[in-house]
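Section 3.1: Structural characterization of target chains.
Under the original work plan, the team committed to producing a structural model for every single-chain target entering the pipeline before any wet-lab resources were allocated. The record below documents one such target. The sequence was received from the expression subgroup and is listed exactly as submitted; it comprises 129 residues.
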Amino acid sequence: MIVVFDAQCLLCNGWVQFLLQHDRQGVVRFASIQGATGKGLLAEAGLKVDGLQTLLVVDGARTWQHTSAILRVLHALGWPWRLAWGAWLVPAPLRDTLYRWVARNRYWLFGRTETCAMPPLDYAERFLD
């Protein structure tokens, strides 16, 4: 499973840190949209880096975006994070409305960095770029 994220977004970096902390099985890998791998995965999914307002999760041939991507990753983390799976009961248009607003305003709400954070050495192999 690969999470494609915006490495300049502080919210996105916080999400990556959360996943590194809670993914005890090491099933999630990461690719930034600023790197070649991330750009390639976005292109395969029909997405462009410019104006991107979604998280992309790639698992084999399947991809997920928006809240579906978050729920898919949380499910992969196992207990107790699998409890979030209940959010699938809420229709995607309702779930994704708030998600899209936060995504559009993520730099304003959470901040932005011009440099990509370096992963801790013990997690470096999980980053594709």
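The first helix runs from residue 10 to 22.
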